[in-house]
Amino acid sequence: MSHGSPRIITLEDGWYNEIKKKAIDRLEEMLDGGIKKGTQMFLPREYVGTYTTCYNMCTQRNPYNWSRELYSRHGETIASYLTRVVLPVLREKRDIHLLVELKYRWENHIIMNKWLKKFFTYLDRYYVKHNTLPTLSHAGLRHFQTLVYEEVKRDVCTAMLHIIDQEREGEIIDKDLIKSCVELFETMGMGTLDAYVADFEQPLLQNTREYYRLRRQEWIVTDSTPEYLIKAEKALANEKARVADYLNPSSEAKILKVCEEEILEEVEMVLLEKEGSGCKVLLANNKADDLRRMFRLFARIDNGLVPMANIVQVFISEIGHEHVKGRQARLDAGEKDKNDDPEFVKSLLKLHGKYLGVVKDTFDGHSLFQKSLKDAFVETVNKNVGNFTNAELMSTYCDRVLKSVEKLNETEVEENLDKVVQLFSYLTDKDLFAEIYRNQLAKRLLNQRSLSSDAEKSMIAKLKMQCGTHFTSKIEGMLADLAVGSDQKNEFVERLKRNDKVKLDFSVQVLTTGFWPTYKSPDVTLPPEMVSCMGEFKKWHDSKHAKRKLTWQYSLGNASVRATFGSKTYDLQVSTLQAVALNAFNGDEKLSFVQLQEKLNLEEPILKPLMHSLSCGKYRVIAKSPPGDKIKKTDSFRYNSKFSSNMRKIRIQMASLEPSNSLKRVQEERTNTIEAAIVRIMKARKTLGHQQLIAEVLQQLALFSPTTLSIKRRIEALIDREYLERDKDSTSTYNYLA
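== Cullin family profile domain-containing protein ==
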């Protein structure tokens, strides 16, 4: 070698005298002696010296380029240290002592790997890169994995599981120790979680399952359902916290799933039906917190809320049936059956309000429990007892509220109407409710008994929201009639005041025939004063609306009659027919039933209730002979000179002349509605099978639920009337005839 050329470093000289002696041996000594935190292991000049030696040995020309040899000896150094020093110590340790030692040795290995990478950085930069070899860090980890991890992983996992069980039993553990061991498992996956999952997580899940299986078997025997669920909720919270403290986040869902399966899913029905503390008992005792916990926990498992919701439905149905039985018991005990039973309706409203609150607050408004509530009340609300349907009872309750019979303030009226409409939504006979409600609304409006037009409009808006415009179109028309007719009524009254011939205060309410219920209109013989007023109105009305036909409804009118009995004068608030009858006795004339019938031109079925109201009711302004509570054709009547009352203004009620045939009218309307639906569907489809036609008809009819038999009969009727025909090739198929 010529003078001035760089000195060639032999492999043995460079390795033993420079690298091993000055760096590696010192590094091992420091690791074995224990390194204090913050200690500087190598001075910059020492580190640079070793790095320079490696650099020179790797940059010499062949055959003196020692890159391959140094890469190999880097691995041998690590393997030797692990085999000579680390493994013997670990083999002597057990349980927590093994974990402590492993943590110490693993931390040392990280330090060793770091410094060896620094010393041999040039290898990483060129030799490793150009020869597609594992990096020095990766190679160091691989040696630890192969020599140490593979040998101790089972014992380490067993020790960790034992310590985790100790924490589950309430003992204080070294969480940092477990966390360090978990990090080792994660690192041994070499960039993946494969080692963590296979070598630690799987045994952990199995151990967790076994642990909670034993706890479940113990708790289910000793604890009530609420006590059990408190423990279950605490266990789940603890497992979640455990993951956050020292496990990999990916384990959370798996561990909680195992816990849920073992402590909830396996015993769900046992807990729900547990005698003395199951779901029904909690509902009966209003244990909201326990029910809320039960809901939260069973919501965690697949379909876990289904059996709970079923129990809730059965429970509410049973309570509802008790209320229905209560009404039946009152009727059986002799209480008069009538269409006005506010006690029963209020009990249903209260029941619904209570469990609607439970569904909203306790069960977070979950759709399953909303369905349970709905199904339970559909069953309850459509269970009729006595001669009157629940649709009639509910409509009559609305009538009481809107007439202020219930003595409610504005807010309470609104709340009650809201509650009734909620119950109404469960009715299958919505069309029957609508018919009865329309009749009662008509009476409220015409007799001026309505609480307020705002309350009436509010109720109609609620029904419209529930069933649509077609449901409320007629009753909206009734209110519109009154609103439009008000101005016309005032105009006519002013005209009448200017007419000197008219001696009565007379006003007329014009109604649109299609909106209002149909009423009987007896052709009564009216006093001349009334006839004169009616003639005046007809002339005025015809001048305003020449194309409209007027039909007088005497049974709907009302009058205020000034009557003198002895020295006292009274204002009698009566119907038009009652006023006409009273007028017949104006001259203290005695009339027999037959004479009165001829004078007033009224049929017996109308005259009897009319005279009953005047001579047999609370206020007997007409004297009947002979006395009695029933009207006979042989009776005679005259002005009651002995009548006296403490009140000056007296309202004399009269029984309705209209028979209660709402159900009959609804049945007729249903027939038309079913036929219209069938024709509508067949016109669009032209040809359709029997079952499919039935299904589509049922789908279209929202206001009532017809039976399959009733639909079948309407189909037969339409075939007879040649709207449809049976298909020649299939008798279960129908064709539409244009």
